[in-house]
Amino acid sequence: QVQVMESGGGLVQAGGSLNLSCTASGLTFEDKSWGWFRQAPGKEREGISCIDSTGGIKVYQSDVKGRFTASRDNSKNTLFLRMENLKSDETGMYYCAVVSTPYCTVVSPARDFRAWGQGTQVTVSS
């Protein structure tokens, strides 16, 4: 049984920072690339970041570069996202998932990934 759980969201003022975490169980975590995805109200889910198995490759959506930082702790099966200088349009539900390619060449979930967690809500007030 594969389970993922996101945490760390909350209410923050524009310009503030937040740290998200994602823990996974029931699968081999350390040999996979993982990504963060956001679904804003009324919009499709989109890829925000990707980090490869060792953390040596990191890819970000263009509008978050320089403000968001992905990291991981393979010993704890945990993925992180540090978000700084948050903007109001970055409000949404944030999810983590296995990424479809091993080197983050595209930030999309693996086609056979079915273990979406509950997500963690990030609300950025203006």
Give me a quick take on this structure.
The chain is mainly β and 126 residues long. 0% of the residues lie in helices and 45% in strands.
Question: What do these coordinates show?
Answer:
The protein is mainly β. Helix content is 0%, strand content 45%. The protein contains no helices and 10 strands. The protein has strands at residues 3-7, 10-13, 18-25, 34-39, 46-51, 58-60, 68-73, 78-83, 92-98, 120-125. A 6-stranded mixed β-sheet has the order 2-10-9-4-5-6, with no helix packed on it. The protein is globular and about 40 Å long. The termini are far apart. The relative contact order is 0.31. The mean pLDDT is 96.
Alpha-carbon distance between the two ends: 40 Å
What about the largest sheet? 6 strands, mixed
The percentage helix is under 10%
Unreliable runs, pLDDT <50, ≥5 residues?
Answer: none
Radius of gyration: 13 Å
Strand arrangement within the widest β-sheet reads 2-10-9-4-5-6
* Total strand segments: 10
Structural class: mainly beta
Determine the mean pLDDT. Answer: 96
Beta-strand level of the residues, as a percent range? over 45%
In DSSP terms (H or I, runs of 4 or more residues), the helix count works out at 0
Shape: globular
Order of helices and strands: EEEEEEEEEE
